[in-house]
Write a structure and sequence with these properties.
The chain is an alpha/beta fold. 35% of the residues lie in helices and 18% in strands. It folds into two domains: 340 residues, Rossmann fold (3-Layer(aba) Sandwich); 83 residues, no CATH class. It contains 14 helices and 15 strands. Helix 1 crosses helix 10, helix 3 packs parallel to helix 12 and helix 4 runs antiparallel to helix 6. The longest helix is centred in the middle third of the chain and has 22 residues.
């Protein structure tokens, strides 16, 4: 769900959106339910429907589908937060975070997240929901879920880094007014490409007079240059090596001296990358044969890939190549989303990625049943969990940062780091929580850490950022053990 290398990858704006003129949702359904959290029965209202978002002239532009969960309390509590959650893509609905992670109803799961479930699929009450500490609103972008554009509007208009953020900001304003929650603390929760969307959104909301108290990122990307390898820039490649080490350790492909302790292996890998590997890549063809063989040998130790293969590839193996090569002799490839999971044959994309293919099917089946049968949201349309047309037509250019000087040129990737830094500097109380999966080849931990370490913020504000790693992949929460720890950490984050 991040990066331009797969469908599920992973901002001032061209169009300003304002509060919709309507006072009620379209096609709205509500019901009351309960969920048990830490032995306590929590009653909540779930509402599903389309909320219109208008432009600055009051003209309806889009109708955004969302599902909200509000804990029912004895009296109104203006201090109770409301969290707006979305996935990435671009072109992915909120289904993963909603029915896979934090909603009060989630897909049934077991083990450590490496087992691919077989049908029939079902939803169960979620003991790891965030509903005890915050109300939740799960948002489906234009082109996904049941969201739709108004008559006569081209949906591609909103398949744009900047326009997408403007729609989300308009929706949040509309929701806060419609629900009477303007006084509530606002939080943002984004996964994968949600790192870019969420960073720009936080800054843009501040421009509109909505001041988020905090933001949560799950397996995010902030700068696509940190995960998108190019022959002219080895940064993304170097940042991926410690994750290769973790994956090779999991599959028992490291030499004995590195197999005793995972964290020690990762630390040694990171140190070598910083002190020697980057230097070798920098030299290019200027690297001596002796030094090249030495580097290939050490890289082989840390990745489990044959030394001669590494030598012939000039010490460069991108994530997709690594996913294919590590278990090639066994006729299997790694999942880019969770390197612990394997599939038959070489890696050829999401079509044979065991994690994405199987989990998407499970979630999509349950989403259609949940919205239509359990909640009673009546529509003849299938729920669009992902939309390849959105991703393939996405306007990445609008997300590129402006040149640093009038006579300079920026030909790089979309980078939301400056927007995130701006949001932090503007509001010293603004707090950031970042969760990464140790076995995530899409958005490796070190790539995320690199972006956070290069934020242009005062040292005094760095304490506002928390970055933790969990024993899972891109969708951390599919490992129940990791999800439990993540929930505890997020509870602390909200209560800080």
């Amino acid at each position: 769900m991040a990066g331009k290398r797969t469908f599920f990858v992973f901002f001032l704006f061209l169009v300003a959106f304002s509060v919709a003129l309507s006072t009620e949702q379209i096609n709205e359904v509500s019901k009351t339910n309960t969920v048990v959290i830490d032995g306590e029965n929590i009653t909540y209202k779930v509402t599903a429907g389309l909320l219109p978002v208008a432009d600055q002239n009051g003209k309806e532009m889009v109708r955004i589908f969302s599902v909200s969960y509000e804990r029912l309390l004895e009296r109104e509590d203006p201090s109770r937060p409301v969290t707006f959650a979305f996935n990435g893509g671009p072109g992915v609905a909120a289904m993963f975070l909603h029915l896979g992670a934090f909603g009060p109803r989630v897909v049934d799961r077991s083990g450590d997240g490496t087992e691919i479930p077989a049908p029939p699929y079902s939803l169960v009450d979620n003991p790891y929901t965030l509903l005890d500490v915050t109300d939740l609103v799960f948002i489906d972008p234009v082109g996904t879920g049941y969201s739709e554009v108004a008559d006569g509007i081209d949906p591609q208009r909103f398949w744009d880094v900047k326009e997408d953020v403007a729609v989300f900001a308009g929706f949040i304003q509309s929701y806060l007014d419609w629900s009477g929650r303007r006084r509530s603390p606002v939080y943002i929760l984004g996964e994968s490409y949600g790192g870019i969307r969420g960073s720009y959104l936080a800054s843009y909301l501040q421009d509109l007079g909505v001041f988020p108290e905090g933001i949560i990122f799950i397996s995010p990307v902030f700068d696509l240059g940190t995960i998108q390898w190019s022959s002219m820039d080895d940064t993304a490649l170097a940042l991926s090596i410690p994750t290769y080490t973790a994956a090779a350790w999991y599959h028992g492909k490291l030499p004995a001296y590195l197999m005793t302790d995972l964290q020690k292996a990762i630390d040694l890998s990171r140190d070598w990358v910083e002190e020697e590997y980057i230097v070798s890549l920098w030299k290019g063809s200027g690297l001596s044969e002796e030094r090249k063989w030495e580097a290939a040998s050490k890289l082989g130790d840390f990745t489990g890939i044959d030394v001669e293969v590494l030598y012939k590839r000039d010490l460069r193996v991108n994530a997709v190549e690594f996913a294919t090569l590590l278990l090639e002799e066994e006729g299997r490839s790694l999942s880019m989303y969770d390197a612990r999971i394997t599939a038959f044959g070489p890696y050829v994309g999401d079509s044979n990625d065991e994690t994405m293919f199987a989990l998407s099917g499970q979630l999509k089946t349950c989403a259609n049943d949940y919205f239509k049968r359990e909640l009673g949201y009546l529509t003849t349309l299938p729920y669009r969990s992902g939309n390849a047309e959105v991703y393939l037509n996405w306007n990445w250019e609008s997300g590129r940062p402006a040149p640093v000087s009038p006579d300079s040129l920026n030909t790089g990737y979309p980078d939301a780091s400056k927007a995130l830094a701006q949001a932090i500097i503007r509001a010293p109380y603004f707090k950031v929580f970042v969760a990464s999966g140790r076995f995530d080849l899409e958005c490796p931990y070190e790539s995320v850490a690199y972006s956070l370490n290069h934020l242009e913020i005062p040292k005094s504000l760095q304490k506002n950022i928390t970055h933790k790693v969990y024993p899972g992949g891109h969708m951390i929460y599919f490992n129940p053990q990791a999800q439990k720890q993540l929930l505890e950490d997020l509870r602390d984050f909200y209560n800080r």
